[in-house]
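# nightly structure sweep
# worker-07 picked up a monomer target from the shared queue
# config: single-sequence mode, recycle default, output format = structure tokens
# input follows
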Amino acid sequence: MLFVVDFDGTLACNDSVDKMLELYADPSWREIENEWIGGAITAVECMQCQLRLVKADRLTLETFFRGIQLDASFLPFLRHVQAFATVAIVSDGLDHAIATAVRNADFPRLPIYANHLHFLPNGIDISYPHRDASCVAGNGVCKCAVADALAAESGRPIVLIGDGKSDACLAGQADVVFAKGSLVDHCMREGISFHRFQTFADVLRMVRKWPQTATTSAIRSIVQ
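# output follows
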């Protein structure tokens, strides 16, 4: 079994990239965001343009990353599911920000699949080690490709826990979906079965009902 966990707005209580842009980027980042939401540009184009507007030194940004608030109820969830499943953080955000926040919160180390952050003298840039040219969503991290590769090792079902646009494509392929935020709206529009959650305590309450060796169909029937 594989749990694919989004970061911003899911494991992190808020969208850390948006907060960073609010604090340290030119306000025009919002115009770029609206272009992406409206479908005029891809997620890759959006993120690259936005991050190049950030003007802050490394010390300032490292301090910000350490202050990212994580969902404390993730720890009991993780302790429960690690006995029978693989858990990976798969995010279209920034790898160094995620690793710093997780380490600062003293959370156990987990595999992180995210875009690579580069520090510049007074700003940052980004590269895409998990980009897939065939990604329908145009994301920097193709969550479908990452999930497929991990599931080949750990086995199905694939359980997605997410909240936003970068999770939408995988939501259509995952065996079980836990959704909040705009992912709820997407799932409702597309007729994708999902379970609402606000924190990992909600997810844990549901997962505790699953037999640890249950088949994908059995788990789907329990969730539904």
